[in-house]
Amino acid sequence: MSDRYSVSKAVVTGGAQGLGEAIALRLASEGLSVAVLDRNADGARATADRISSQTGSPVFGFGCDVSDRGQVKEAFAQAAEAMDGIDTYIGNAGITRDRMFHKLTDDDWDQVIAVNLTGVFEGLRAAAPWLRTEGPGRVVLISSIVAKAGNLGQMNYIAAKAGVVGLVRAGALELARFNVTVNGIRPGFIETPMTAAMTKEAYEATMTSNPLGRAGQPEDIAGAVAYLCSTDASFVTGHILDVNGGMAL
Ligand SMILES: NC(=O)c1ccc[n+]([C@@H]2O[C@H](COP(=O)([O-])OP(=O)(O)OC[C@H]3O[C@@H](n4cnc5c(N)ncnc54)[C@H](O)[C@@H]3O)[C@@H](O)[C@H]2O)c1
Q1: Quick one: pLDDT at residue 1?
Q2: Which of 44, 46, 213, 226 is most buried, with most CB under 10 Å away?
């Protein structure tokens, strides 16, 4: 592993596809061991095997629904056993259930908060015993541009993603004494299976309005995560990094 990293054992939630997969691939290419956790257990294992053979780094896949506290505890314990500890936690798993707020069902609200906010918190809580004893450590939590800019039809998602910003601020202060940095990323529009569900019109409107004139790619987010996990960012904590091509300044 290069001198650019003082950490070596990362858990990535929601790592079977999309941003999580790109983050896991980037960290494994940098020489870290990685545990990919995803509610899609087969997907997590398949992605882990693919990344491992591509990079030569140890990559493990475990089934884990982050909205289930018991599963989170168990999967983090499995990851720690496989990697001989955890010093890096990437809280990435997320879902959308978009509707104008007067049409949101109880389930739309509860599910999005359970996965995107409580699930991110539970991952931090499950990783904490290892983060506290291993030090130095890195935590990167994935928020969203909409936590800053707002958006129609995403009140549940925006509330959860704004809550993630709160977890970053609080976590940075609580974990600093253990030499663990806690930062967040607010991705803009990034091409993944999540955004593939957008209508053609919404996709084109988002593309043409971006100052850099393109959609973000998963690798754009993975690069930002790699920086925040590297020794270059060892004095950066409690920061929320916008990676959005200038879409919301
Ligand atoms: N793609 C974007 O434009 C964009 C923008 C801003 C923020 N984000 C955030 O980035 C993160 C990743 O998004 P993506 O675009 O890669 O989405 P995606 O839907 O392509 O991938 C999400 C992954 O998370 C997993 N997942 C979903 N619910 C889970 C649960 N309860 N437990 C464990 N795993 C679960 C899915 O199985 C999937 O593998 C999400 O938190 C999302 O809100 C994405």
Answers
A1: 63
A2: 44
